[in-house]
Recover the amino acids of this structure.
């Protein structure tokens, strides 16, 4: 059976109907965008930093094999075990084997989009490993059996009463106590014993540094540091595009990451992992999972520059009003809409159309990814690959034909028989029907501009010529 | 009046939805350019610039419209249109047909009305214009982020606004300051029907923002955005009116 494309429009419609959630979601993320703007205004060199960041990433991507090998060699010198995973299945197998070798039954982990890509929890749990997310938002999503709806704030589509209900179900707390502090406290009480007793810890990572063979994890809750250091076995999973060549390059990105994401100057914790602690083990799994393929796509390879700050999501007026889950993918929002089709073109064929192509995303992107232009290009690719809904394709084909023939077009505008005979009018009208669901139609006018011009300019001109 | 004394042979493009639903905007554009001493013609065989097809990914289906556009407009010094998104398409994406010298001429000399008045004619006064109302300016994303007729909030660049420069020369006009001046209104072409719910919600948020800021009118260089916003405002009962910038500059009082 063919995969069905994600129905973003329908999911978004459901999200919009719930006004309290919609309003909070829109305003919370808009607030992040405002805070990001304030940070930008405080750094006169902001645009220069964006250019530098973009150049560093493009250079790294253009020389990816060399830098990856450099990273591997240096990481090994630091006593880190380095693994290579071509895809999600291989990643999960590698992680599974490490855990099995150490007899791990309980794994604590911090947020990692790559493990979401790989569906790692679903792989490990049937194999007897209990996985506990330690990031608050990610834990909420895990308990609710949902994907993260945002790459930085995974549960931003929820309100505190939702969390109170969820915690009551899992932690047996008061379902009516939706005070954020007591909810955070409940999570802490539930998480700390698990952290202390865990057999292994897992983290994602924001940056790999080739020249030092080290990696950097940025968080605001400190949970990654606990996950990495408490159990004595640390596995870090990172996409191969997370690389920067030198330690000196890192400053550019660390300055931009949290400013773009949350509008704070830096994350609370910016931890450099340089090697295992005495008596413990450290593993890094470098994951490809489609990245090499993407690197070869002329129009889309620069999407690999992404540092996962989520600024494009915060500014996106469509994302803010549809919620991350409506994208039906690990990566939502503008960046998701240009990355997801590289994982499954049919399934995510609708996402590049879930955009007005207003371009705000490209403007806030700290690494200058031309997101809205890639959305435009994806639409072409998807049309060429026949991934557009039949009706839309037909309507565009009809419209294209009509617009090339002035006489037929005039006839259609004035609604005469000539046009009706040629155009399957019902298809066009049915397709346009949704316009009126929440909107009035434009008011009818007595005369088109075309007809006015003929009457008021051509006739008078002719008269002038005759005289 | 024109600050340069330039007189050009201008081809006027009136987009399909203006032709059919907002002829006043087309008339105002024509009269305004005539008042400014320009030699304006409206080629009768024009239809569309190809944007709806191209934006939907169906670039091949845009070829006939683009070819016809070039046939109609290649003979003019400048092609002017009261639509930012159409101008953006012609300038930046018009590639369904081979790029001949004629096509390149057309693309290079296509202007959205505001940028034409501001940058080419450098108009410094509209002595006939008076609009004693508080207006909220809506910059379409095409004019703002593609044609760059105003500064963009995301970039933190020094403030500038070509449409506001022009409107400031109109007697009696004042401006409302919406909370999210750069936010897209949600029209987005076919997006308005394929993503109806999001589109309409963005539209109603947009008109409320202007209304709450005290705007009596929303004024824009893009009728397509306003057609959508007007539909949303009327359905939601937001009392606000809409007018194209060409009409104000041409002397409309209300």
């Amino acid at each position: 059976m063919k995969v069905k494309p994600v129905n973003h429009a329908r999911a978004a419609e459901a999200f919009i109907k719930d006004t309290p959630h919609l309003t909070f979601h829109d305003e919370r993320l808009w607030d992040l965008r405002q805070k990001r703007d304030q940070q930008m205004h405080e750094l006169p060199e902001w645009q220069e930093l964006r250019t530098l960041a973009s150049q560093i990433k493009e250079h790294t991507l253009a020389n990816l094999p060399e830098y990856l090998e450099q990273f591997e060699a240096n990481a090994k010198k630091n006593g880190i075990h380095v693994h290579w995973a071509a895809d999600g299945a291989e990643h999960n197998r590698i992680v599974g084997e490490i855990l099995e070798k150490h007899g791990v039954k309980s794994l604590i982990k911090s947020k990692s989009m790559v493990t979401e890509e790989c569906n790692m929890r679903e792989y490990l749990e049937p194999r007897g490993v209990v996985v506990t997310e330690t990031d608050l938002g990610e834990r909420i999503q895990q308990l609710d059996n949902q994907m993260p709806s945002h790459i930085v704030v995974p549960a931003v589509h929820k309100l505190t009463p939702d969390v109170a209900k969820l915690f009551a179900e899992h932690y047996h707390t008061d379902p009516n106590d939706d005070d954020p502090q007591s909810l955070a406290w409940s999570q802490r009480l539930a998480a700390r014993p698990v952290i202390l007793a865990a057999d292994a810890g897992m983290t994602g990572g924001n940056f790999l540094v080739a020249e030092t063979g080290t990696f950097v994890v940025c968080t605001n809750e400190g949970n990654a540091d606990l996950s990495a250091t408490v159990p004595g076995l640390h596995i870090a999973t990172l996409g191969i595009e997370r690389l920067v060549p030198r330690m000196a390059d890192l400053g550019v990105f660390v300055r931009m990451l949290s400013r773009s994401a949350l509008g704070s100057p830096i994350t609370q914790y910016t931890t450099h992992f340089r090697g295992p602690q005495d008596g413990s083990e450290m593993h890094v799994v470098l994951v490809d999972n489609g990245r090499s393929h993407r690197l070869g796509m002329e129009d889309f390879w620069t999407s690999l520059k992404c540092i996962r700050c989520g600024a494009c999501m915060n500014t996106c007026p469509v994302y803010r009003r549809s919620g991350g889950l409506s994208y039906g993918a690990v990566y939502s929002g503008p960046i998701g809409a240009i990355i997801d089709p590289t994982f499954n073109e049919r399934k995510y064929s609708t996402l590049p159309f879930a955009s007005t192509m207003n371009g705000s995303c490209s403007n806030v992107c700290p690494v200058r990814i031309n997101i809205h232009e890639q959305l435009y290009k994806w639409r072409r690719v998807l049309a060429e690959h026949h991934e557009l809904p039949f009706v839309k394709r037909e309507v565009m084909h009809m419209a294209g034909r009509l617009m090339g023939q002035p006489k037929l077009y005039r006839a259609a505008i004035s609604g005469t028989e000539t046009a009706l005979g040629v155009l399957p009018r019902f298809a066009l009208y049915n397709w346009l029907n949704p316009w009126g669901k929440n909107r009035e139609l434009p008011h009818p006018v007595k005369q088109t501009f075309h007809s006015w011009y003929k009457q008021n300019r051509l006739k008078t001109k002719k008269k002038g010529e005759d005289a | 009046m024109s600050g340069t004394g330039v007189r050009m042979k201008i081809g006027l493009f009136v987009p399909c939805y203006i032709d059919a639903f907002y002829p006043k905007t087309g008339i105002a554009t024509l009269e305004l350019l005539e008042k400014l001493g320009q030699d304006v013609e409206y080629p009768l065989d024009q239809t569309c610039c190809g944007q709806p097809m191209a934006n939907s990914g169906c670039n091949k289906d845009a070829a006939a419209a683009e070819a016809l556009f070039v046939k109609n407009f290649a003979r003019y010094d400048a092609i002017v249109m009261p639509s930012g998104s159409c101008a953006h398409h012609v300038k930046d994406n018009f590639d369904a047909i081979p790029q001949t010298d004629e096509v390149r001429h057309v693309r290079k000399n296509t202007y959205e009305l505001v940028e034409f008045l501001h940058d080419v004619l450098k108009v410094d006064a509209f002595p006939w214009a008076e609009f004693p109302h508080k207006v909220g300016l809506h910059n379409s994303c095409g004019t703002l982020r593609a044609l760059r007729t105003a500064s963009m909030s995301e970039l933190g660049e020094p403030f500038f606004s070509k449409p506001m420069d022009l409107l400031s020369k109109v007697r009696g006009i004042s401006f409302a300051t919406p909370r999210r001046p750069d936010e897209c209104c949600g029209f987005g072409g076919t997006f308005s029907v394929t993503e109806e719910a999001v589109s309409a919600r963005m539209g109603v948020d947009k008109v409320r923002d202007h209304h709450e800021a005290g705007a009596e009118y929303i004024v824009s260089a893009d009728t397509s955005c306003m057609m959508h916003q007007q539909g949303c405002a009327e359905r939601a009962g937001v009392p606000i009116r809409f007018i194209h910038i060409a009409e104000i500059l041409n002397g409309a009082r209300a």
About this structure: The mean pLDDT of chain B is 96. The first helix of chain B runs from residue 16 to 21. The domain at 134-249 of chain B is CATH 3.40.50 (Rossmann fold). The longest strand of chain B covers residues 134-138.
